[in-house]
Amino acid sequence: MFCRYYSKSIPRLSETFAVSTLLAAEMSHFDERSGIVSVETPWGKWWQTISEIYIEVNVKEGTRGKDVNVEFKPSTLRVDVCGETVIKGDLFSIIKPDDSIWTIEDKKMIRICLCKGREVAANLWKSLLKNQYEANILEQDNMQKKLTLQRYQLENPGFDFSSADISGNYQEGGPQLPSYND
Fold this sequence. Notes:
Layout (H helix, E strand, L loop, with lengths): L11 H23 L4 E2 L3 E5 L3 E7 L9 E6 L2 E6 L2 E7 L10 E5 L3 E7 L11 E3 L2 E3 L2 H19 L27
Antiparallel strand pairs: 1-2, 2-3, 3-8, 4-5, 5-6, 7-8, 9-10
């Protein structure tokens, strides 16, 4: 639960930062509680949220950061490990490369976080790269349900949609619900 504190001594920017930090924490908890819908690939797996694409690349144990080269541009991704290309191609949609990051974990997995160029529930990536690493129809359906529930979570802080189920019209981010803030 978030309680706003208004004071003339606190700048409006601090309040905005506090609210955005709270929402980011709430959304990460949403993913932890609701689970992920991942697509298995020969090199690992990928999954998505409204704002990000997560990629896990399994590598040989003992791999170090200097053995890895990850290059992301607005519409392309390339991952090289020990001089061999693991992933290369045009992304399904655009990303924000300056906000995207990668790390190597436990010297055996590369974790990449790509920030989507369009952060809306209707922006479902059906594959990681164009015509490569495609989610099957069931995975796409489950991903769209999750993105729609995430959208509802963002629009209704204080409610918990992490264990909710949805049916009916949830494609393209679901129906627009009436706003009671007016």
